[in-house]
Amino acid sequence: MLGYVKNEKLEFNYKKSCGLWLIAVALVIAVATLIGGKQIINMQVFSIGYMISFFSINMNKNLLHKLSTGSSTKFQKNVSKYSIILLFILMIFLGGPFFATENWRLIWLGALLATALHFFPFYFVHGKSMILLGIMCTVNIIMGYIFSDVSLVLFAYIDAIIKFIFGVYLLFFSKATKQ
């Protein structure tokens, strides 16, 4: 279904573009949180920033080619596609039910947890750092659920910092690896 070829060595060639994407998303989360308002993380600022970042990074073939060190396999492309689908499905289930009551804390915790969980399959696309990123973001958001008296703003900034650090690492310090 995913196109995995037995004994195929995976090359993680898009680490730099993943790093740039994480930096962009981290900045969008930080700015949307700073502006905040009733929604805690401003939905309009987040949505506009996310879309601008998505199209300027992930849909920019010239930039992706410049940052990559090779191509992805069919399996890796499929894992990426299904991981993004998983992200939106998880968002619907984890954050979606709270739109009716406008419980912005639970909406955003659900969205951020969905994002954290969707990092795990990206291990097959970008390597081991995705597992650590997923664990750190998941633990942070679980703390947000547990410590409900602590402002979501703190957990949003921590989430942005985690993503920013991993983004800097992937963009500037990681090298293409094989698994």
UniProtKB/TrEMBL annotation:
Keywords: Membrane, Transmembrane, Transmembrane helix. Pfam families: DUF6609. It comes from the Bacteria. The chain crosses the membrane at residues 18-35, 41-59, 79-100, 106-124, 131-148, 154-173. This is Uncharacterized protein.
